[in-house]
Design brief:
Blueprint (H helix, E strand, L loop, with lengths): L2 E3 L5 E6 L5 E6 L2 E5 L7 H10 L7 E3 L5 H4 L2 H8 L3 E4 L3 H6 L10 H11 L15 E3 L2 E3 L8 E4 L8 E5 L3 E5 L18 H13 L4 E4 L5 E2 H14 L4
Parallel strand pairs: 4-5, 5-6, 6-7, 11-12
Antiparallel strand pairs: 1-2, 2-3, 3-4, 8-9, 9-10, 10-11, 12-13
The structure holds zinc ion.
Zinc ion binds next to loops.
C-alpha cells in the first residue's frame, strides 16, 4: 500500500488499486475513506483498513456516484455507522444506486460510452446508499487536518468532487486520470469544458500532487502544462 505524507499532518494511503483507487486519509486517529471501489473485494478492503489501524471510519467521501466508486458505500456505511458525503446534484442517484450518464470525451471514450448506453441498467447499478451530508461548492473537514476540504470539481460528472488534503495533495476522483503518460484528460466527461475549468480550480488550491482514481499521480507542472493547452482549445476562462 503506497502512502503519501503531508507537511501539515494528514497521511494518505492507497488502500486499493486496480479498478478504482481507494484512499484512506488519516489524521490524529481519525479516518476518512475517499471512494469505495466497485462492489467486490470486500474482505480485502476490510483487512487492509484493519492493517492501517482503521477499526472505524469517521467518514466516506464519494468523488462521484459511478458504480466503480460507490459500489461498497452502503455496506461500509452500515458497518461503520459513519456519514457519507456526496455532492447535492448526485445524492438522488446514490439513493437509487443509479449510475450517472457516461459520456465519452475521446473516440475511445465515446466507443465505451456507447457500449455502456446499450448495457442493461442493472449491470451498472450498485447497492443504494443513504446520503448523510450533501456538499455544494466547498466543505471544510478540519477533523482530517488543517486545510483539508472537499471541493466541487465538476466535468467528469455534474457532481464530481475532489478532496484537498492539507492544502498539498488532491484526491481528484475521475477529474483526471493517471493511466497515460501523454495526457491526464479522462476519456469520459459529461462536460469537457467544465472539466478544464475544474483543473483551474484544482491548480488554484496550491496542491503539488494530484492523485486520480485510475492510474498514478500527476504533478502540478504536468497538470498546468496540459491545462494551459486545453483551456484555449475548450475556451475555458
Ligand atoms: Zn467515473
Amino acid at each position: 500500500m503506497k502512502t503519501w505524507t503531508t507537511k501539515s499532518g494528514p497521511t494518505i494511503t492507497r488502500v486499493m488499486g486496480g479498478r478504482c483507487n481507494v484512499f484512506l486519509v488519516s489524521h490524529g486517529g481519525r479516518f476518512l475513506l475517499v471512494d469505495t471501489g466497485p462492489a467486490g473485494m470486500w474482505r480485502l478492503l476490510i483487512s487492509r483498513l484493519r492493517k492501517l489501524g482503521a477499526e472505524k471510519l469517521d467518514g466516506i467521501v464519494l468523488t462521484h456516484t459511478h458504480f466503480d466508486h460507490a459500489g461498497k458505500a452502503a455496506r461500509l456505511r452500515e458497518m461503520f455507522g459513519c456519514p457519507v458525503y456526496v455532492h447535492r446534484s448526485e445524492a438522488e442517484l446514490l439513493e437509487k444506486g443509479a449510475n450517472p450518464v457516461i459520456r465519452g470525451s475521446t473516440p475511445f471514450g465515446s466507443a465505451v460510452a456507447f457500449l455502456a448506453s446499450i448495457t442493461p441498467k442493472k449491470m451498472l447499478a450498485y447497492a443504494p446508499c443513504a446520503t448523510d451530508v450533501t456538499v455544494d461548492e466547498r466543505l471544510d473537514l478540519p477533523d482530517f487536518g488543517p486545510n483539508t476540504y472537499i471541493l466541487h470539481t465538476p466535468g467528469h460528472t455534474r457532481g464530481s468532487m475532489s478532496v484537498i488534503v492539507g492544502g498539498e495533495t488532491a484526491l481528484a476522483g475521475d477529474g483526471l486520470v493517471g493511466m497515460f503518460r501523454s495526457t491526464a484528460f479522462p476519456p469520459f466527461a459529461e462536460d469537457s469544458r467544465e472539466l478544464v475549468e475544474s483543473w483551474g480550480r484544482l491548480l488554484g488550491t496550491g496542491c503539488r500532487i494530484f492523485l486520480p482514481a485510475h492510474g498514478g499521480a500527476k504533478n502540478a507542472d504536468e497538470l498546468r502544462a496540459e491545462y494551459e493547452r486545453r483551456r484555449v482549445a475548450h475556451r475555458a476562462p
